């Protein structure tokens, strides 16, 4: 079978291939994602179906249910996000902006784990990593270090030492002799990850791989790397703020709707056991400020939602958000104008979720309506009021999932009133909490006015 070396252009988002460079991928529609990579194209050997061996099959009904063995990470917030603990033989991709704390978090995890750990770094020397351990007050007695940058060499180290956890920092600095291209290219990234996955399955080691991100904030490299791994985690945060949020966009061993909250301090990332209290510690009680309850997996969080309404000097008034969907804001402002008579055609509207939090939950709808109405009327909301509920295009206020968890968190933190759609018969109202039921946006705005 003959082969030839040819230049192939591929899309880093969907892996579509092209014989020449194009500005826009015709498969996924993305611009600027086409890059070159050298690849060996082989002539396909045509085989008849009768010459191919028959694959074995297994009756799934005859198999016993077996839970994947897991062990605790030592961090309750990490265990919450990944589904109760680190899975043996699992491969986890951890992404995030430069400087957000990916290496710090995984180094602290390695030190706190109390198990045999292999730390692989192509970006730092042993002295640099040791110095970071000292700054974090972490013992390195159970941590072995290597700068092996070739995946074949690293697999041999893993097979020899048999660690229970391997941390690779980072995927883009590793290379494989089985693929063409330089380290970090799509071919190399896929080959390196394939080698690590094979090592994880054969040794039952859990492997955490740090991945770079693009300027858009998504994992760098071909999209196929997210399909290959078992778990994809994103560490989010702003370098100007101390809070960090850990989320899973893919998880074969648990849910993907949980969030872990950390705070960056002098000695590294510290778990936040009571996020609601932290989010509300510096709340603003003027007009436009509203406290709402969001549900992140099994956890209810109280956060402050802020609105600012200002006279616009533009032909098209500005709508801007931080942590909230700007398109949904446009829809809610249209509902507020048409269904409740609060016209904002000549006003700029800004929405902010305090603390750097972000959410796309529909339960925030009524809180956005209340905060914008409060800012427009220049009338502060009661300091002990919580607002949540979904808003429809007809101006109706709809119930949301997890109302009882939201109410329990509201009561626990000392709030006395809740503006929301009427409770179902199955939901219990905590003692000391006053329910203010509303059926429409107009009813909610009228209540705020008077």
UniProtKB/TrEMBL annotation:
Keywords: ATP-binding, DNA damage, DNA repair, DNA-binding, Hydrolase, Metal-binding, Nucleotide-binding, Stress response, Zinc, Zinc-finger. GO terms for molecular function: ATP binding; ATP-dependent DNA damage sensor activity; damaged DNA binding; hydrolase activity; zinc ion binding. A motif (RadA KNRFG motif) lies at residues 250-254. Residues 348-450 are annotated as: Lon-protease-like. Signal peptide: none annotated. It comes from the Bacteria. ATP binds at residues 96-103. Belongs to the RecA family. RadA subfamily. DNA-dependent ATPase involved in processing of recombination intermediates, plays a role in repairing DNA breaks. Stimulates the branch migration of RecA-mediated strand transfer reactions, allowing the 3' invading strand to extend heteroduplex DNA faster. Binds ssDNA in the presence of ADP but not other nucleotides, has ATPase activity that is stimulated by ssDNA and various branched DNA structures, but inhibited by SSB. Does not have RecA's homology-searching function. The middle region has homology to RecA with ATPase motifs including the RadA KNRFG motif, while the C-terminus is homologous to Lon protease. This is DNA repair protein RadA. It comes from Candidatus Veblenbacteria bacterium RIFOXYD1_FULL_43_11. The lineage of its organism: Bacteria, Candidatus Vebleniibacteriota. The gene is radA.
């Amino acid at each position: 079978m003959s082969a030839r070396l040819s230049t192939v252009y591929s899309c880093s988002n969907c892996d579509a291939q092209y014989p020449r460079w194009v500005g826009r991928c015709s498969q996924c529609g993305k611009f600027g994602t086409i890059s070159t990579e050298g690849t060996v194209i082989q002539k396909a050997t045509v085989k008849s179906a009768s010459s191919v061996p028959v694959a074995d099959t297994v009756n799934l009904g005859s198999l016993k249910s077996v839970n994947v063995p897991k062990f605790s990470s030592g961090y309750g917030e990490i265990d919450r996000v990944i589904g109760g603990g680190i899975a043996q033989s699992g491969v986890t991709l951890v992404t995030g902006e430069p400087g957000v704390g990916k290496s710090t978090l995984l180094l602290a995890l390695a030190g706190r784990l109390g198990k045999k750990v292999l730390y692989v770094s192509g970006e730092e020397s042993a002295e640099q990593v040791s110095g970071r351990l000292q700054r974090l007050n972490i013992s390195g007695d159970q941590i072995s270090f290597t700068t092996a940058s070739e995946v074949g060499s690293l697999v041999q180290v893993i097979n020899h030492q048999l660690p229970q956890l391997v941390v690779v920092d980072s995927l883009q600095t590793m290379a494989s002799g089985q693929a063409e291209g330089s380290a970090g290219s799509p071919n190399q990234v896929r080959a390196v990850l394939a080698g690590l996955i094979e090592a994880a399955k054969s040794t039952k080691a859990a492997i955490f791989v740090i991945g770079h991100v693009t300027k858009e904030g998504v994992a760098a490299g071909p999209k196929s790397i997210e399909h290959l791994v078992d778990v994809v985690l994103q560490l989010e945060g702003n370098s100007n703020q101390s809070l960090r949020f850990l989320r899973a966009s893919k998880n074969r061993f648990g849910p993907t709707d949980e969030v872990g909250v950390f705070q960056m301090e002098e000695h590294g990332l510290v778990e936040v056991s009571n996020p609601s209290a932290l989010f509300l510690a510096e709340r603003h009680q003027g007009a436009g400020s509203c406290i709402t309850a969001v549900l992140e997996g099994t956890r209810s969080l109280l956060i402050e939602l802020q609105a600012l309404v200002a006279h616009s000097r533009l032909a098209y008034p500005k709508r801007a958000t931080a942590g909230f969907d700007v398109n949904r804001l446009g829809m809610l402002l249209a509902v507020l104008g048409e269904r409740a008579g609060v016209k904002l055609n000549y006003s700029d509207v800004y929405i902010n979720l305090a603390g750097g939090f972000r959410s796309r939950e529909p339960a925030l709808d009524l809180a956005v309506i209340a905060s914008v109405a409060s800012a427009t009327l220049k009338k502060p909301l009661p300091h002990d009021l919580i607002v949540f509920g979904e808003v429809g295009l007809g101006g109706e206020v709809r119930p949301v999932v997890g109302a009882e968890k939201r109410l329990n968190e509201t009561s626990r933190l000392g709030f006395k009133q809740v503006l929301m759609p009427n409770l179902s018969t199955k939901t219990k109202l905590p003692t000391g909490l006053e329910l203010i039921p509303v059926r429409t946006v107009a009813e909610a705005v009228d209540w705020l006015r008077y």
